[in-house]
Design brief:
Largest sheet: 3 strands, antiparallel
Bound molecules: zinc ion
Strand order of the largest sheet: 8-5-12
Strand content: 15-25%
Number of helices: 6
Radius of gyration: 22 Å
Length: 188
Amino acid sequence: MNLSKELNNRSANKCELCGNEDGITAFLVEPRTTAEISNCIAACSICCEQLAKSTKWNVNHWRCLNDSMWSQVSAVKVVAYRVLSALKNEGWPNDLLEIIYLTEDELAWANETMEDENAIKHYDSNGIQLFSGDSIVLIKDLDVKGSSMIAKRGTAVRNIRLVQDNADLIEGKVNDQTIYILTQFTKK
Ligand SMILES: [Zn+2]
């Protein structure tokens, strides 16, 4: 049986979040990558659009979670938990968060992407986000601490590493020496 048939069976062809019957598609719940039924929910176009964050949160739409958060389907509970967390400053979602029940595994799944969102982010001098493995160029001559070396402006540094507890610092190799570099002096 293919995925959409399995989902139809499970969801009775309705959005598993809001019950809507229009534009139902399989929504893969991040960070899972395999399109199998346990990783997917049947979601309507409105829910998909909201979950893709391609439009502003429609807070009232999500009152549907009042019912769907009690689903037997882990993927549905995970999405409900994430949406409620994102909206918790609205008041009522926070009340629901206090009573939603997730198993340990479901909670770990739900938090996998939420932790990413809260993680420290690194940006270059132009405000472009940096990731481990990126290459950057120095935009200023830099004195290398503890040596007489100067890392010249224009030097390309490949395969940088982010310093996890400091948003202003990355590590990279210049002349075979690993140095710390302030992100404000980098350009991707
Ligand atoms: Zn929906």
